[in-house]
């Protein structure tokens, strides 16, 4: 038996397993005999179809739905996930070039897999580490590990299914993505009213201020609001400060593309590679070295990637748009997770809100399941996101045709 503290316990289950009935008890992993019986498989298939049907009807009837996507959504596009985990074929675990052979060998010997959090991310992906030696940070961390994250990769069927849903229901369906690969939106500068890239985007950059007086803290003047991701007081303070025309707009308000950076022309491609498939035999990342750190063209301060680092707050740049994300989560009637490992603050806050407001939760995932409890009404739809999300889009289309729904909701 498990107590209330286990409400969000994650259990590894088979790729076709679906659970939807509320229970205070952790579900046990089925035995091999149970998982292989025709009756069990049929029950899973029927439960999965019922979950997709219920979610699709919620969307078609105009319920306010927020999709929260994670790294699992982009694995089929060849983008490496951040945490350990193994797709069925293990394809993304293979080294991309000779420079990764030793790292992969070491990981294998220690039982670790190729998720980036198993390597250097926790200790290096901080603004503090960046300030210590920006050039070393770029050459030894960002370029080999994240410099080409998603750049050159193409959206897979899961991305396209979500784009289709957002386009058809722009007033009621919203997406908050944790991914920095940019695969959910083709134009980083477009005003996409249905998408928040809350952790930033690889290939964009921001100006580093002269000092960090307060990168993050627990104080805020609106702690009692229903969903609390960032610090709105600090956001207002930064906006007031940046009304000073002498301050660089790229510190907080705007983003820089790689071709805007002050950097030798031959080195700009290191920060924005073109036509690179991250899962192919790309040129050895270790051969891509910067001779100097990139600088802002306006103030000449050093520029850093537009990616939220572990010691930065959501208020640190307007690109993260956390206030809009908070509003969407506050008002949503259905919450959908797609390919996330539930290991960051965003998913913790979202699940806490779902429990408090009794919001139905759907979890599209390959490995990480959520346990239904008396306080968490969850349906786990297990399988690769590039297969399950298109099924959702197809179910929505079928229901609209069968029930004679027009496009009023999408206008």
UniProtKB/TrEMBL annotation:
One Pfam family this chain carries? SIR2
Instruction: List the biased-composition ranges (Acidic residues).
Output: 211-224
Source taxon at top rank = Eukaryota
Gene Ontology cellular-component terms for this entry are: nucleus
* Polar residues composition bias: residue spans: 17-39
Disordered: annotated segments = 1-39, 80-100, 209-236
Report if keyword rRNA processing is assigned: no
UniProt KW keywords: NAD, Transferase
Q: Deacetylase sirtuin-type domain: which residues? A: 45-402
Q: Name one GO molecular function term.
A: NAD+ binding
* Record has Cell membrane as a keyword: no
Which PANTHER family does this entry report, sorted A to Z? NAD-DEPENDENT PROTEIN DEACYLASE SIRTUIN-5, MITOCHONDRIAL-RELATED (PTHR11085:SF10)
Instruction: Write down what this protein is called.
Output: Deacetylase sirtuin-type domain-containing protein
